[in-house]
Design a protein that fits this description.
The chain is mainly alpha-helical and 179 residues long. The chain has a single domain, classed as CDP-alcohol phosphotransferase transmembrane (TM) domain (Four Helix Bundle (Hemerythrin (Met), subunit A), Up-down Bundle). It has helices spanning 2-5, 7-17, 25-32, 34-44, 48-57, 63-70, 76-99, 105-128, 142-158, 169-178. α3 (25-32) runs antiparallel to α6 (63-70), α3 (25-32) packs parallel to α7 (76-99) and α9 (142-158) packs antiparallel against α10. The longest helix is centred in the middle third of the chain and has 24 residues, at 76-99. It is globular. The two termini are 22 Å apart.
């Protein structure tokens, strides 16, 4: 997906991945879960700027797949494990906003549900088509969603009391992502 949507980021992923070519990509996937967990803890502690840094660090999640491709270590398990860990990561990132008291639980549950259902629908559609069709399209995919969540958190941290239609900036952003 990066290659098609973000050629610059894909080229960067190739460079960033090279030092990790000797490692098992599944270990990189597991290590990649540290950043969303750290984000969760920092957001609950209301350490907004450190949470943003942790969330930016979670962007390194993309190197496991690149390492697997470059080192010819792609496996069915690795693909499943990467996808599964992405769902764990999404759940930690989205639910952190409710645990921190920034976004209402109802909005968090709706966004979390829609995010997980979109991923599930895509994987089931690809399975049903026996991989003849690649369902790698959409308006806002996981990478864009995380970038937007960073933006919403930054704006919220700068203007925590500003309300739009009775919602703070983070809640407004969650509504946009739900739509």
């Amino acid at each position: 997906m990066l290659k098609k949507s973000f050629p610059l980021i894909y080229k960067l992923s190739l460079k960033v991945s090279k030092p990790f070519l000797g490692l098992n990509p599944n270990y990189l996937t597991l290590i990649g879960l540290i950043f969303p967990l750290l984000f969760f803890v920092l957001l609950v502690k209301r350490e907004f700027w450190l949470a943003v840094v942790a969330l930016i660090g979670s962007g390194l999640d993309f190197i496991d797949g690149t390492v697997a491709k470059l080192s010819n270590k792609e496996t069915v398990f690795g693909g499943w494990f990467d996808s599964f860990s992405d769902r764990i990561s999404d759940s930690l990132i989205i639910s952190a906003f409710a645990f921190a008291g920034i976004v209402d639980w109802k909005l968090v549950l709706i966004l979390l549900t829609t995010s997980l259902l979109i991923s599930y629908a895509r994987s089931r559609a690809e399975l049903a088509s026996m991989s003849k069709i690649k369902f790698d399209f959409g308006i806002i995919e996981r990478t864009e969603r995380i970038v937007l969540v960073i933006l919403f958190l930054v704006v919220y941290s700068l203007f925590p009391k500003t309300m739009l239609a009775g919602m703070n900036w983070a809640e407004t952003g969650f509504v946009l992502l739900i739509i």
